[in-house]
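Can you give me the bound-state structure? Components:
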Amino acid sequence: MPLNEPRITPQLVAEHGLSPDEYDRILRLIGRTPTFTEVGIFSAMWNEHCSYKSSKVHLRELPTAGRCVIQGPGENAGVIDIGGGLACVFKMESHNHPSYIEPYQGAATGVGGILRDVFTMGARPIACLNALSFGDPDHPMTRHLVSGVVAGIGGYGNSFGVPTVGGEVRFHRRYNGNILVNAMAVGLAEADKIFYAAASGVGMPIVYLGSKTGRDGIHGATMASAEFGENSEDKRPTVQVGDPFCEKLLLEACLDIMAKGCVIAIQDMGAAGLTCSAVEMGAKGNLGVILDLDKVPCREAGMTAYEMMLSESQERMLMVLKPEKKAEAEAIFRKWGLDFAIVGETTPGRRFVVRHGGEIVADLPIKELGDEAPVYRRPFVDPPKLPAIDAATVAPPMPMADALEKLIGSPDLCSRRWVWEQYDHIILGNTVQRPGGDAAVVRVNDGPAALALTADVTPRYCEADPFEGGKQAVAEAWRNLTAVGARPLAVTDNLNFGNPERPEIMGQFVACVRGISEACRALDFPVVSGNVSLYNETNGRAILPTPTIGGVGILADFALSATLAFKAAGEAILLIGSSQGWLGQSLYLRDICGREEGAPPPVDLAAERRNGDFVRTLVERKLTTAVHDVSDGGLAVAVAEMAVAGGIGADLGGASDVRIEGRAKIGGPEAPDTASHPAFWFGEDQARYVITVRQSDMAAVFELARVNGVPTRRIGTTGGNALTLPAQRPILVARLTEQFESWFPGYMSGSNQPCA
Amino acid sequence: MKAAVVVFPGINRECDMARALKLASGREPAMVWHAETALPAGIDIVVLPGGFSYGDYLRCGAIAARAPIMDAVRAFAAKGGLVLGVCNGFQILCEAGLLPGVLMRNARLKFICRNVYLRVERSDTPFTRGYNAGQVICVPTAHGEGNYVADAGTVARLEGEGRVIFRYTAPDGARAPEWNFNGATNAIAGIINERGNVLGMMPHPENHVEAAMGPADGRGLFQGLAEHLDRAA
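Here's the bound-state model for the whole set.
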């Protein structure tokens, strides 16, 4: 053992996040006391973030196969066939803990990490999305975190040169001490030129590419696998520092060496850096790996083996090189001014051997490092069911027009322009639909095909009923893709939860995964990649369960995508799907009535599919002029968003004769059954869309609806400069627009009144 | 039009620019690596595209202005060759001494990506002959450092000599502070050199050349250039 290394004590083992049982497992596995470097390696490989030890048994339930799937979970990113010989490579990953500790760098390196996951596979990134969850706007940290995270995402993506085209932002007090930053990247590759991590061939050179290794991010993955306490600020040194300039060079150099046929296997250095990438390449290829750390390019002198193996310095890659291509590959990296060093080779012995300063500092069985990581079947309790809210018991505290004005200017529903204007969303020249719609639409190269992209989840539903909430997250992603006219293909999931050692949190996780599985199966929407982030807690208080779903769909012709803006006056406004007036967990109930309660809307997956397929057909046949899905805030908010986007009003006054179906489900004999009740306008029933139709197409649309058994009704007509709900004062579209656009900039500049 | 697009490390809108140039002229531009010391023969316009050359380290455009290829670009401009710099390209032209002034951080200190309205002040330059003087075009911006600043004497000269080519305005062409989103002096979005052969501008006409991607108002710049150069050839 090298001199000056700490002795292996129970305390040291505990500091590495390894339990006594896990340490015993290590002792049995290697038959001796591990070296200090080996303890670091085990801690890096066996933490929750890298090993999925609490989630693995449940993730197996997810449907991962499908006609379009080329590569499911287990690689750097998922790969699907999008036709024309092309593949879409995509994944979403969290960078929650680092972003709370150091918002700019945490979020920036989250973007950098997910981009590397995509281009490691040979794909050129074409779009990014992100899903952000912040604490209460009134919490003293929130503004600082929003500002830093948004700047960090923009700072990295803008400089790297990928458009950030969509995502979501929410606020809730349960994220006060633990924000969520989920970043998704989408890339394009030729379907038969995907690169994988598995090494092959003995004696092949292992090459280190990219930036030098420094002392940043050491134990980042271990930090991300523990709860926060009061002193989370002290963990700033575990946050990595990003350099998007270097990543852009790395992208170009990697795609260049891939195109020139130099690469046998390639793996980015993400969480747990050199350790994880080297072990995975060897283990997946059934080979051993020997690394010589004296060859690793370092930013500073005197780094120990332990530090080098655990550094999470950014913008680095590890590659198994075709030996005959060494000179060619090295010349490409020199051209881009990047480090290129042969740091090891593949070996037949299935050992992971690390040498430093002439000594062997680690000698471990490579397969077992990954495969023998502990797997836990943690105890869980089923979450209690909450009662459905009887709409009849909800007394409207204000007129509906006032409620709509308030909701559209509320933190959770207002425009996110302040956020997405800081992201370059047009670079590469293929952004057909920019942020602000149901899904972004990005043309595939020169077209005509295009990808639709979205990221969705409704955490308050997941908290109230994790199973229905899991279903709803998938259904909403599917619906958003459908609303722009795309055929949904596959998803990536980013599962953010609290401490899995608590049975009620594990219960949320298990139920959400079951819900996601059920919805993905019913909608032929397989999961091809994902990430699990647990221990999102501060001082024992967990976040809302937040399983973010990133969805990808395809349009045959980008020019035919539907948008949500009203296009012309005098067009019919139709509601697709049935309404029971479901107020439980609605934003109306929470933000207008002050009641955060009840069961969330149930998700009827057969109805989702039927209604969505109908809407997509209408878009394809050009029978509709605008489409918007109905989600947070319900029908009134959906129509208002369409009016604001188009600058055209809507008369909904004639809808007062509409009767709500299924009234028995929402309450007793007094249940409101007409469209004059807020439950109709603000209920968050699922599987619904608002569309506009030219008068001349009405007969065709209703006939198609009848044939397909899709509940369709007219709720109003576009036109004028105001939106009018039944028996309500008209609200000027200009007023709605002002409300919609003003909250975010006002909040960030500190000029808003405190939220009520 | 035989264009050369200079590629510095960290530049990221070179493909957008190449696509717009090809759309207007039917020819692929030559892509020239920053480490070269000569431009390809027969080139009639050099374009410095947008991006983050050298990661914007030191100052935006400062390192690129001293790249090996820039001596050739300066010599090309000195002989009257057309040079167009967009966004980071504008910053590089200022740092290289080919245009006066400097691009500072945006007034609100944030990167902003949005469609803006530009009034085309002159149509009698090779770059703007595709437009009418006074015409308002809608093109996107995407920058954090586009706030044009120069000393009072320089600004007075630019204005006096009619060298402000694009200005941020309202959709109707009127000047108003709320439409000058980055705080640029006199709402300056683009300027030309004394000789009229070097143009720098912050917004991205190359991202508005196809109707499907928004207004195709950027197309006039490239088509006007192509016509001018084809006539000259």
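A couple of observations. The mean pLDDT of chain A is 92. The interface with chain B takes residues 151, 154-155, 158-161, 243-246, 248-249, 336-337, 420-432, 443, 558-559 of chain A (CB under 8 Å).
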